[in-house]
Amino acid sequence: MAQVLGVLSTPGGTVAAVESLKQAGFDNLEVYSPVPSHAIEHALGKGPSWVRLWTLIGGLTGVATGYLMTIWMAYDSGVVIGGKPFASIPAYTIIAFELTILFGGVLTVLGLMAHGLLRTARRDPVYRPSFSNDEFGCLVRCHSDQIPRVQELLQGAGSMEVRVVEG
Amino acid sequence: MAAITEPVAANANQINQDILRVLTPPSSLYVISVLLLMGVVGAGVAALAYQTWKGFGVTGLNHPVMWGVYITSFVFWVGIAHAGTLISAILYLFRAKWRSAINRGAEAMTVFAVITAALFPLIHIGRLWKVYFMLPYPNQRGLWVNFKSPLIWDVFAVNTYMIISILFLYVGLIPDIAAARDKCTDWRRNLYNILALGWRGTAEQWRHHARTVLHLSGLATPLVLSVHSVVSWDFAVSLVPGWHTTIFAPYFVAGAIFSGMAMVITLMVPVRKAFGLEAHIRSEHFDNMGKFIVLTSSIVAYSYAIEFFMAWYSANPFEQGSFWHRAFGDYWWATWIMIICNVVIPLPLWIKRVRVNVVALWVISIFINLGMWFERFVIITTGLSHEYNPAAWGYYTPSWVELTILLASFAWFLMWFLLFLRIFPIVAIQEVKESHYETQEEGAH
Q1: How far apart are CA B130 and CA B252, in angstroms?
Q2: Chain A CB within 8 Å of residue B207 CB
Q3: Is the backbone of residue B186 left (phi > 0), alpha (psi -120 to 50) or beta?
Q4: Is B287 domain-assigned?
């Protein structure tokens, strides 16, 4: 499979490139961008991130841990403090709240690493330093006989440079 | 908030260059400053070693004032941390675009402030080697920590806050570390390479990154409100006159944002000047921060007034005695420093001309820092020194050991901040660029 890279200078131009490629039936796309862009995400047709599930699991684990840990430890100690019941829910709610946030936050970041970062940590021949500065990259994976059509579409969208990249 | 519509810089490349320029080899003034701060930190470590060796008798802490400079400083530094989370999380959820120029500095400040704060309970323990007693761990006595105690709530709240603040700062930094990696040629390139975790700015990465920042903001927003509320309950849940009041949680949170915002100004004004970041951190940003100070100063002023009113209205002689003592007793000077610095000195900020005058704002911010430290000192010492029984009243004077450690805490905080701004981008590059592109596209339509 061939790879064609178009280098663009604005998010708007990148969105236009993605839309024209999608319309022409090219779905295997990757976009490099120095800034986040909802418009690019929308044009690529990406769904919501799975990170949200990690947050939910973390939060639920945190709240359950907070209540179960405090109640169990109070019963296990068996020491009555201030005449209050072992399972003093209002006091333990603070611990449960903090652990909800802690576990939710830590798992959210682990989710980011699992989905977005560490999975893509391999060397990338397409990436260039200007993609973290002021240039946008639109990479199209296609059959070699489709290269001229892709080049034409990328140029039509205002690419500053279009080239075939060795995979 | 003042609308910011003008373009922040000529182009995205300019933004990159301007902000990454701060990472170039430091000047001799910078090196001397860091060494000086390290020296003061060293003095603090020596004082702590002396205290640990000799025992708590070397401090001024004694019956009835068993909490003094250390707990005052703990509450002060936790408070300072709050502005960072306000700017990075709450204003993110409100889509306040003006935050982009100052959020990184504020987030870094949060992390270093909360790390500084976390040191004080350890110092205050005295027996440092018993620090693990605060954590629930299996032991031969079959005892667990007392989860009904506000002090244990604090352990969980402050540690959660520290971990979440570090994660928030780091996640926001990843794309900027990648930008630094791609620009850097010296030894730091390897560091950035590892810390960027393979960031390439693909749409897939941005999609997960944006969701992570959103969720962390959603989690950090109630967290920031809870942390200083929990800290305030260290006092409010007790029966000490002057402490036992329901107003403490909102009063402490407002005070925290007030002092934190002042500290952001104290730090960012010299940074802006020293590194020529005027194009990115502009007078509009200071104007907006000034408005926050006006708002929170008003809440703090109201809280001071209502505390005195409630003492009078309650007809409780102990409460009345405590507040009379606060205003006109042994610590009258501390109380009036607090009122003048936190209520009177910020008043000119109602005028826009003062808010956009960075020198005036900077001077006022320093007074607010001072005033907010004294606020916590007043609450703690006047409460404890003047409880129910006149025979048990006392006067607390901090010793040189406590004052050295206090001074060292400021040096410690500033040292980390200075080191941070030479290693990592102090302005969020990708957020400033995002605003730049948005302004550009709005102009094109």
Answers
A1: 29
A2: yes
A3: beta
A4: yes
Q: Is any Cβ of chain A less than 8 angstroms from the Cβ of B339?
A: no
Residue of chain B minimizing CA distance to A86: B148
Residue type, B250: P
With contact defined as beta carbons under 8 Å apart, do B292 and B262 qualify? no
Residue B6 is predicted with a pLDDT of 41
Chain A's closest residue to B152, CA to CA, is: A95
Pairing between β-strand A2-8 and β-strand A29-32 as defined by DSSP bridges: unpaired
Q: What is the average pLDDT value for chain B, to the nearest integer?
A: 91
- What is the domain range of residue B258? 12-137+147-439
Looking at the complex, does the CB of residue B237 fall below 8 Å from at least one CB of chain A?
no
**Residue A119 pLDDT:** 62
Q: What is the DSSP letter of A119?
A: G
Domain ranges of chain A: 2-48+135-165, 51-119
pTM above 0.80, yes or no: yes
How many folded domains does chain B comprise?
A: 1
**Partner-chain residue, chosen from A44, A127, A132, that has the shortest CB–CB distance to B179:** A132
C-alpha span between B360 and B366 (Å, rounded): 10
pLDDT digit string, tens, across residues B181-202:
998 888 888 999 889 988 999 9
Q: DSSP letter at B184?
A: -
Token couple for B245: 């009041």
Paired tokens of B206: 């941005």
Lowest mean pLDDT among B40-54, B188-202, B365-379: B188-202
167-206 in chain B: CB under 8 A from chain A? 167, 170-171, 174-175, 178-179, 181-183, 197-206
Does the domain at A2-48+135-165 match CATH 1.20.272? Answer given as: no
Percent share of chain A, pLDDT over 90: 69
The pair of structure tokens assigned to B63 is 């019956």
| Crossing angle (nearest 10°) for helices A11-23 and B429-444 | 70
Nearest-angstrom CA–CA distance, A88 and B113:
32
Report chain A's mean pLDDT, rounded to a whole number: 91
Does residue B4 lie in a domain region?
no
Considering only B7-11, B271-275, B303-307, which range has the smallest mean pLDDT? B7-11
- Beta-bridged to residue B273, according to DSSP, are none
Within 8 A of B181 by CB-CB distance, chain A residues are 132
Provide φ and ψ at A30, rounded to 5°.
Answer: -140, 140
Give the closest-approach CA distance of A34 to chain B in angstroms.
Answer: 6
- Asked whether B53 and B349 are in contact (CB, 8 A), the reply is no
**C-alpha distances in Å from residue B284, one per residue of B161, B197, B257, B359:** 29, 35, 19, 14
**What's B330's domain CATH number?**
1.20.1630.10
pLDDT for the residue numbered B27: 87
Are A84 and B148 in contact (CB < 8 Å)? yes
The pLDDT of B385-395, averaged and rounded, is 92
Non-local (6+) Cβ contacts of B261 within 8 A are B83, B86, B289, B292, B293, B296
pLDDT higher for B123 or A126? B123
Q: List pLDDT tens digits, range B98-131.
A: 888 888 999 999 999 999 999 999 999 989 999 8
Q: Does any domain span residue B78?
A: yes
The average pLDDT across B357-380 equals 96
* pLDDT of res. A167: 62
pLDDT of residue B1 exceeding 70, the answer is: no
CB B238 within 8 A of CB B107: no
